[in-house]
Structures
1.
Amino acid sequence: MPDSSFDIAIVGAGPAGLAAALRLHQRGFRPRIYETVAELKPLGVGIDVKVYGTKELDELGLLQEFRAISVDARESIFYNKYGQEIYAELCGVHMGYLYEQRFVHRGYLQMLLYRTVLDRLGPDSVVHGVRCLGYTNHDDRVTLDLVDQAGERSRVTADLAIAADGIKSAVRQQMHPDHAEPVYSDITMWRGTTLMEPFGSGGTILHIGAPQSSSMIVYPIANDFEGTGKVLVNWVVEATRDESVEDWNQRGTVDEIMHYYDQCDIVHLDVQTMLRNAREVYLFPLIRHEPLETWTDGRMILIGDAAHAMYPRGGNGACQAIVDGSALAEKLATMDDVPAALRAFEAQRLKAVNGIVMAHRGEGYEVIRRMVEDRTGGERFTDIEDVLPLAEADAIFSKYHALVGQPRPGFEAGDTTGYRTEHAATGN
């Protein structure tokens, strides 16, 4: 059991910092979180929590609460820009995993973690309204330089500090000044939500379009939203746009993206109506943060987006951030030397997560829609098996799932895990 006087400071009360605090508390530590905003609110749109992310939440004792605020993912279906079906696979327990894949509003998940931190660690475990400006390492301690909303400066010294301060991390900037300036990828995401009738199985995620021009992901994140009997649906559209502002809260409209889907006819969904009825639309440019060669400096360590910011594709950013806290807590609880524990954590996580960062930059399994567009010359196909055989698509998906740490059940034995639904298009 760790010494109760061992001080851990966490910078940032996003999912990464909150989950890390809960994991550390399970191991006998009592960290304190320092958060920039004066009051946390359930902001953001949807995230896709993979099976290993659900496992982490179960191990935190939050599975039932998580289920109550999220939607069980049942199937994932891929379409070209005309709405012709390319490929489908089951999700989570429906594929044979031990845990569910679930869709959730990012803000609702963050608030669940936040309430749990206050309940388990106490009301003084989160200090609001202070921003971290930087840090200073000492022989056996580390000092954080903080500033509050009135501009008053202060310092906090701890045995260990964890930077979970996101994509604009001041700690990352100090630790890696050569990586301080991110590069715009020429792709912008339009992220929105729409209140609508359920579609598909009620737990269906749709992947639509040709990535050469525009790509769309759609999935439900809340059933019977606010007692309306309707579902709150999260959608994300990628397309090119001339900008470089890295801001999750930049407002946008659907006017620039509607035309990409004016030929799209999907049995599950009226895409145009969904876009027109959006409750909110945010813009976010895809920014390239190059993988780091280290996340540690003395007794300071980066986790989550501060360590491995990745394109928000494939649902692994938040999940990998949550895994960080679990792995770090295990090393700190089993090793007496703090810098050595941090290096062991980095040795376990850095190479694998950097691989996921680069895979997301290369589209991951979404590449099948690009392949179909290229192989058909952008035209409709007659039989998808002549364009992208099921066995070829299966191999692509199995490789990607293994990369992110969730190998497909049974595929190593030669089982076919992908399929085409009864609505698969054959050129009709």
2.
Amino acid sequence: MSDGDDQTGSPLPVTIDTTKPHEARFYDYWLGGADNYPVDRMLGDRIAAHVPTIRTMVRHNRAFLGRAVRYAITELGITQFLDIGTGLPTARNTHEVAQEVDPAARVVYVDKDPLVLAHARALMASTREGKTAFIHADLHDPESILTSPALADTIDLDRPVAITLTMIMMYFRDSDDPHGIIARLLATVPSGSSLTISHPTADFNPTATAEAAQACERAGITMVPRTRAEIENLFAGTEIVEPGVVTLEDWHPELAEESLYEVDPDAGPAWIWAGVGRKP
């Protein structure tokens, strides 16, 4: 195994602030990870008080990511991945799934959390045939990602790329221009590239979702649930592949592998819409 590359020349803070919750860390807490702090667990528990099945939902999301990676390689012929908002390294990271299918697959991870940066080199290794890299950047500034030397050194932008935005666009208000940010990413990659999105919604339980979002806002974290139609609109510039934008567990379940995370079969549908679009 050869270590991947990281990109540390970012203007983002590199000091870990344990006094404020962070998206990557309370997500890690829900997945049963150890890379989180009391303030993250406190917010995670507050959200879970309104959405008791949140831990099952994030496990469904992790499983969806794996299926989307396998689909990109086996059905779309894409072996390069730009995984933005990757979160803390855990079991079944994008490069692990991709390089099992194609050892030459290449993956660039992007996250703004300095704790993810601290773990990037140690935990994001690669096969000899493939390559991984990490960019410490914030999607609010897509140019910081697209102009990074780590991106150019790892991914051939003349070949299709799978852009992965799982559970990240809810941190963008409409005033942040999420459509413009996604359009900028898509403009950089060629025809045949793909866009993977998963996004929480209030469509199933508006009251509980609103209360969970308010808990995030009170903690200083933006949380914007969107309707199915609004999430479909995020795929502008692509053709959404079958079965369309559906709940996590309904997206190509035939591609599932044995999950490393226990999922409660009686928890009901995840309150998260997901899909994959293909750039024509």
3.
Amino acid sequence: MRILLVDDNQTNLVLLSKLVAKLPGCEAVTFSDPAAVLASMPKLDFDIAVIDYQMPNYNGVELLREIEMFDRYKGKPVVMVTADTDMATRMACLDAGSIDFLNKPVNPLEFQARMKNLIALVDARNKLADKAEWLREEVEKATTEIREREEEIIDRLTIAASFKDAETGLHTKRVGEYSHLIAQAMGLDARACSDIRLAAPMHDIGKVGIPDAVLLKKGKLTEQEFASMQKHAMLGCDILRESKSSLLQLAATIAATHHERWDGQGYPRRLRGEEIPLAGRIVAVADNFDALTTARPYKEAWSIASAVEHIRERAGSQFDPECVAAFEVALAEVLVARSTLQDQVEPTVQRFG
């Protein structure tokens, strides 16, 4: 335990140092000049301070107020040594942050008794701080483990869905990466961007509930079949929304809204403008871009320029204009992600109704 002693009287300073030396595990840190104390900060390390009130240049109150300006010293126990019994002086000391007083001349027994009480107080504070830090670390560890499990669940569910709809290839991963980049370009915080990246690949999970005759049909869908295909949005939401996981709840929102349109002509609920959750609006752009630029058995891949122009032209009708603007800002990074996540084998069929 390091005890700071500040007294311009060398005799008093020697006496206090000897008294500190008698306290088990304690070390005196001595200064006879208040200015030297301040010059040593903020590197000066101490646990308790004992400061003389009457000193040249800085009195005890002035020194204490300067010390309290450093965050690392806030809350450190300070004892003021004074021969002044005037209430105004003592109130000034208390206001500055002193928690106790010693009268001059210092009584050795009183000094040691007060120091032992303060040492016990500091020990208790340190143990409480250590426990709080341990609890914080344990909570952080548990939160990280939960997060990792949520991410694994999403990854496993996405893989499971790909067995039903083999045409997706790396489509879901690309949509996740594109959505993440668009979210970043819109200025969303890092956690929100990460959540969208993880949840976006679940946007078409509802296709597991679409009959194979419709999902895998190579020709043009009939009106009735197209209506059946559109059900995948709410099916995906129904699969995910009861989860207590915030990530899966976000995925449910994305599944339900990524086919809504800015002008209210989308499905399944014909939401309009900002009625559509932001994550759904972002994924709508990312999903559309990837669908357009990927070859499918029933269509050729569009050129990058044509797909970008298509999306740009539909800003304000199909897509949120701000999401489209962010997509254009992020386009260079989107193309890098697209190049990295190219399908390795020819897909069998794709339907993005």
